[in-house]
Amino acid sequence: MDKNRINIAILEPSQIIYEGLSNILLKFKKNFYIYRFNDLEELKHSFSKLELNIAIINPSAIQNKLTDFVKLKNTSRGILWIALIYSFFDNELLQKFDDELTINSSRDQILNKIGQSVNTAVNSQIEELSEREIEVLIQMVAGLSNKEVADKLNISIHTVISHRKNITEKTGIKSLSGLTIYAISKKIIPLENTSI
């Protein structure tokens, strides 16, 4: 799948509101792909076919299906859930979402909010490091050379180089200082173990 492609699900019963929101979003970015769903069950069944990044949902569509919504949200990590609000909803219901859009939002406010959500969605799609890659990263951050890492982990130097390459590809970070900051931010290593 194209890594720049952002799949957006819209669960909205009103055709006018769906088309208006779709029109705004499609003018914003050419790599947005928008899918319309009529109910939560239909959205749930799409997860095996689509790699969704953002789900924009009218809260009335889940009001009587809150348990199902929470289960779906908990089993589908990496998706941002945005409430599309144009009437009053209980605060407890709205807290189940990651963010909110209102029907009164201007075009710029919608684009700004979705743009921030897209950045968050893309960042959350960064592949997780394997256990061995984390072990190699810890040794790299400690200042060990490829040979020292290989000796310490009882693997070949070629394997260390391969893991380093995978770490760089998955994180998008090439410098050791950048990888150190990454390791601290992901709580792979504690701050006090570094010389930063």
Ends: how far apart? 38 Å
The total of helices stands at: 9
User: Which ranges are low-confidence, i.e. pLDDT below 50, for 5 or more consecutive residues?
Assistant: none
Q: What is the chains' assembly state?
A: single chain
CATH architecture designation of the largest domain = 3-Layer(aba) Sandwich
Integer tally of domains: 2
- CATH class term of the largest domain: Alpha Beta
The CATH topology of the largest domain is what? Rossmann fold
Strand portion: 5-15%
> What is the mean pLDDT?
83
Shape: elongated
The CATH superfamily of the largest domain turns out to be Response regulator
Return the structural class. alpha/beta
Topology, number of strands: 5
Written account of the structure:
This protein has helices spanning 15-28, 40-46, 66-75, 91-94, 107-124, 131-141, 146-153, 157-171, 176-185, and strands at residues 6-11, 32-37, 54-57, 80-85, 99-102. It is an alpha/beta fold and 196 residues long. It has two domains: 6-124, 3-Layer(aba) Sandwich (Rossmann fold); 131-193, Orthogonal Bundle (Arc Repressor Mutant, subunit A). Helix 3 (66-75) links the parallel strand 3 (54-57) and strand 4. It is elongated and about 65 Å long. The mean pLDDT is 83.
A few lines on this structure:
The protein folds into two domains: 119 residues, Rossmann fold (3-Layer(aba) Sandwich), CATH 3.40.50.2300; 63 residues, Arc Repressor Mutant, subunit A, CATH 1.10.10.10. 49% of the residues lie in helices and 13% in strands.
